[in-house]
Amino acid sequence: MKKYILLVAVAFSLGLTSCDPVEEFTENTAANFTGDQIDATLDQPDGDNLVRVTVHTSGTAQISNGKQTIKANYADLIMREMGANTVYIKMMNSNGDIVEKQYPITVSKMTHPLPVLEVIYWQGEQSTGSWDGASLRFSDTEGKLPTLSDETYDAMVGKKICLDIKEVNGDGTTIRVTNGWWATDYVKDTEIHAGEKFVFEFTQAMADDCKKGGAGKDLLFVSNNGFTITKMYFEL
User: What SS3 string covers 175-213?
Assistant: First the structure.
């Protein structure tokens, strides 16, 4: 089993996250150009959050709104914020250099629903019973969930982490966020319900406790009655 799972899932099949390069570029061998010379048109009727982007420069482009990147020369890009936004277009020129052009736009209406973008840290199905300390510990040797790497814990810091709750073992079921040593309660016993999402903020102190390069205590979820989870993730 891999020591951690860090996947990017996009419930709206348009691409990957981040405005950084996410795939290999197709080199443009016909010309050497700068970012300012990228030729593209943007169509945004009446300030809508759907922007139709067409890149005319030869070579495969990456079109991004800063969180979602599409590898194509044409894209229907959905902007995620009202007001000032930026469309980023990156390409590779004949020297092999990655060049970028930025197009500032203003969104005045949110007609199109936002794609759900998630960074998934773990996905599957796993259950814990009443105060079953090993079940939902992220440890290959002392729990039923895979060990998370130090890099994953670092990436989680400052984010609101989500758990999808599939089932609970009765009314009044609670969840507690702690670590494998039961040394610190990061989130006190909180009532949860089947079919809902439990959200908690992951802090630097939690990362320092859980990382193998820190205290090595591992992240742990426990319960008074028991419950089943199917995914731990961060919504972008």
Answer: EEEEECCCCCCCEEEEECCCCCEEEEECCHHHHHHHCCC
